[in-house]
Amino acid sequence: MDYRFLKYFLGLLIHVFCISAFAQTELSSKVADFSTYLPIVSANIYIQNTTLGTISNSDGKFVLVVPIEFESDTLVVSSIGYKSFKIPINEFDNSEDIYLDTDIASLDEVLIIAESRPKTGNNIVLKAIEELSYNLPEEPYLQKGFLRHRERNRKEYKWLIESAITLYDSSYASGAEDNLKINVDENRKSYDLREVDSLYAYAVYLKYQKKNTDFKAKKLNRDTIETTALIDAIKWNDKRINGLENIFKGRLNLLRNSNMKEALFGEGMLDRHQFKLDTILVDNGRKLYKINISKSTDFVGLSTENIYNEGYQANGWIYIYWDTYAIKKITYELVAASEIQKSRSKSLYGTQVNHKLIMTYTEFQGKMYPNYFYYETPKLVNVGDRSSDKVKIDDKDTRFYYTVQEILFTEVIQDPDLVSEALKKDWSEDIFKSRPYNKEFWKNYNVLLESEEEEKLIQDLSKRATLFKQ
Q1: DSSP code for 90
Q2: Residue 171 and residue 42 share a domain
Q3: 77 and 126 co-located in one domain
Q4: What is the C-alpha end-to-end distance of the chain, expressed in Å?
Q5: Is the four-CA dihedral 432, 433, 438, 441 of positive or negative sign?
Q6: Number of independent structural domains in the chain
């Protein structure tokens, strides 16, 4: 009796395990150019008529976990300037690479079609900004996403964290300060070696926390600083420079916050930017304006509290759908332009590019939702005494971090009841907070695939982080 029950119980367990194992399908492949065989970076891979998808890494490779309910749907692989590839998910072969052929429309042919349409880059972009209220979501929604945040100096990786996040947005019409929220749901990886070279951050932290105290980084000694105090300083420096709040609620969220005061793409945008129509491309069968972003008469500034973030000129590209004027993609750089900023950037960072931003959007039920954000900026951590304009540098290779934040957005939740229920919970955008690792959660969650180079660097970081903690 007991034997038969045990046999039945084991069989049931195996059955449940099999159902669980096949509850999703993992698709993986490489996307490349048909003519050159070179990898296509940031190609969109998604399930048709949904927001569930991912993008290809710098090697052109991707992995996408597809829930069982979508196994009869169509997978789409697309990239601006290429013909799309479509295949039923149940016919997808992980062993075969995907090759996309170029697809470019004629600029002259398109411009002749309609006399009433704007024909200059400036007027096309102004029209696209005017149409944001129609093209961006009008109702509250939640969106799930994956964050990878990494920092390194010129010698080595110093910090990596990967998180699952939830974004809440009430609508484009509402101000982001009070109507946009971010929650960090889970953490996957967290390796941190920053403590040993963050004395400058600690000195600045003390300066702003204790207004009447004169601290200089060169006078500080790590042996005399409590670890908890240094960690507080590191977190403070993280949050003011590249916390999630900055990227979503600040000026660099170019479209969502174009209606905020002093928005970069708001009132007077042509004083800070000029836009020149370059050509017409195709994305998944739809025509796109490709427009160059360049400098104008005024410098661009971010008005960051306690940080000199002024005196830039903008470079980049903006891609706008021909039919709806919806903005599909923006690549945006802020380059040192004023004499003060050029001198500062050269002496501190050895580069004139202080901010690099990539934003892509996906259309879902007639509205454009965030698809992928990439943000890169240098962050000072160890520069000795900066009490005068003459910066004294102890180690050029460790005085700042290259910090990179990547966010892949997937599921959109519009159900009012689900949105309302989620808002009742406590929300925290603190990516630095320690959270237990939830192995089961990450089995079914779509993440950004690391490139081969990144994977080696991350493995090295994990080994050194373990030794460091010992």
Answers
A1: G
A2: no
A3: no
A4: 52
A5: negative
A6: 2
| 295 CB-near residues (< 8 Å, 6+ apart) | 273, 274, 313, 314, 315, 337
Q: Is residue 57 part of a domain?
A: yes
Give the domain extent around 87: 2-100
Considering the domain architecture, whether residues 442 and 409 belong to the same structural domain is answered as yes
User: For residue 65, what are the CA distances in angstroms to 24, 68, 233, 389, 448?
Assistant: 6, 10, 38, 52, 11
The alpha carbons of the chain give a radius of gyration, in whole angstroms, of 24
β-bridge mates for residue 161, sequence order: 149, 190
State pLDDT tens for residues 435-469: 888 989 998 899 999 888 888 888 888 887 766 55
The reply to whether 96 and 158 lie within a common domain is: no
86 and 129 within one domain:
no
Alpha helices for 243-356 (secondary structure H): 244-249, 269-272, 339-348
CATH number at residue 50: 2.60.40.1120
Same domain, 50 and 144: no
Asked if 417 and 453 count as a contact pair (C-beta separation under 8 A), the reply is no
At residue 113, φ and ψ (nearest 5 deg) are -55, -50
- Residue 177 corresponds to which tokens in the numbers above? 């300060």
Kindly report, residue by residue over 92-140, the tens digit of the pLDDT: 999 999 999 998 776 655 555 556 789 899 999 999 999 999 999 999 9
Retrieve residue 136's tokens.
């961006």
Distances in Å between the Cα of 344 and the Cα atoms of 167, 322, 380, 413 are 35, 41, 12, 44
Are 144 and 184 in a shared domain? yes
User: Nearest to residue 316, comparing CAs of 365, 278, 281?
Assistant: 278
Backbone angles phi, psi at 326, to 5 degrees: -75, 140
Phi first, then psi: what are they for 268, rounded to 5°? 75, 20
Are 189 and 333 part of one and the same domain? yes
CA distance 446 to 62: 10
Task: Say whether 319 sits in a helix, a strand or coil.
Answer: strand
